[in-house]
């Protein structure tokens, strides 16, 4: 068996662009993968065309060899776009390997260590407590969710006194705790909007007494010593990692004791192959993995196989999609978990390629926050 072609399909999931990749082989077995769209979406297809020539004619089942080849042919370490492209290729190769063997991918990873995968729902905003109660109760009724992620910001954090926002956040979480079932878990995603670490420490203190599931990415990821200091001064589980790329960056974070939970993205770090290396490093540091997954149904399928086989997995991010017509039979939560599909080889999801022929691309840009004085801030 050898690789014959690579196709790209720029599509959307709900209102965000998503790029799907299909690799075809001489035996008629094909595999699918998904890129993370970091921003310059239209730069990815030509990059993938370039990378295809590095693997054309190769045996797709040699996943480790081919991913090493793609990384090592780069003179400099691949960055955001390069690793996103390699991630999709890696996914597609694993899918082919599973289909060729007649096995789910997780069986190629040593088999499943759990029978199902726990998920939480990203709400992402900070709705009024009563609306949050109704929304989470509905999600619980529909899918069995007991874990959710919301924002700690009830308003623009650059307007008004910071201490007032901290107080409001504490009161907000306290009210949510009062009116929602006690078994519900709530995480807070601060979206790296805080520049000064002491403010992140103050915000953590405001939510600590109400037992958050985790406190995600309050500050930027670049300066690892700041994460070490932050973790040493807060009393809530600290999570980060969606903006880190390689095992080397995660190793620096772990060695600095900078997180309780890491959140690598399997569509960012280089795919399943690199994701497993990162997770093993975390396991050796007594750190769990909660994959970043605001993606489409295909990326969710890839994540489920990773989570099924990874011992130190904690919980997977998943928000039900409204628009992804190319996913014929997406994984959906049952009782707050994703069920495995042991009778389906590869990723266990069917892609309607005919549906992908329709141009469904949507342009999206991250909005830049402006402070009251006109200067820019992290969004």
TrEMBL record:
GO terms for biological process: amino acid catabolic process. Keywords: Lyase. Residues 129-237 form the Mandelate racemase/muconate lactonizing enzyme C-terminal domain. SMART domains: MR_MLE (SM00922). InterPro entries: DgoD-like, Enolase-like_C_sf, Enolase-like_N, Enolase_C-like, Galactarate_dehydratase_3, Mandel_Rmase/mucon_lact_enz_CS, Mandelate_racemase_C, Mandelate_racemase_N_dom. One of its GO terms (molecular function) is lyase activity. This is Mandelate racemase/muconate lactonizing enzyme family protein.
